[in-house]
Amino acid sequence: MNTKELIEEAKLAREKAYVPYSKFKVGAALLTVDGKVYHGCNIENAAYSMCNCAERTALFSAYAHNDKAFTKLAVVADTDGPVSPCGACRQVISELCDKDMPVVLTNLNGDIKELTVQELLPGAFSPEDLNG
Ligand SMILES: O=c1ccn([C@H]2C[C@H](O)[C@@H](CO)O2)c(=O)[nH]1
Ligand SMILES: [Zn+2]
To answer: Is the ipTM above a cut-off of 0.90?
Structure first.
């Protein structure tokens, strides 16, 4: 699957967003090494801090299906420029995806920014940091 197709998958994922509070729909599509695609959408809650972003939904869904090897992540929202993932998602992406994996950030106008996982969060806290 190419990047354009993965972006279309992210747009389909976005339509599944549950966003009664922000009304801000975000979609993510995560491609596995086997060519499978996991959708992620943001899912909000009346207890606002429980809201989960699209990027983490996609990653957690893949993990729940025992898929842990990924080749690309696309994220889309209705933003002026390419959507910018939050800090929490950057941290989770940096632990669960290869540091050189491309992350494609886009919007409904077709603006695209492609970064590696490492570029998305330079200096991320990592599992190695737990070893002192
Ligand atoms: O990259 C992003 C940025 C924000 N959100 C969600 C969280 C919340 O539901 C809404 C507004 O912040 O958008 C995402 O899912 N991904
Ligand atoms: Zn996030």
So the answer is: yes
Q: Domains plus CATH for the chain?
A: 3-125 (3.40.140.10)
Is the distance from CB of 6 to CB of 43 less than 8 angstroms? no
The minimum-distance atom of ligand 1 relative to the CA of 42 is 15
**Which DSSP string do the residues of 3-67 spell out, in sequence order?**
HHHHHHHHHHHHTT-B-TTT---EEEEEEETTS-EEEEE-B--SSGGG-B-HHHHHHHHHHHTT-
Q: How long a stretch of residues is the chain? A: 132
Parts of the chain with a pLDDT under 70? none
pLDDT tens-digit series, residues 71-91:
999 999 999 999 999 999 999
46 is in an annotated binding site: yes
Name the closest ligand to CA 93: 2
Report every protein residue that has its C-beta within 5 angstroms of ion ligand 2: 53, 86, 89
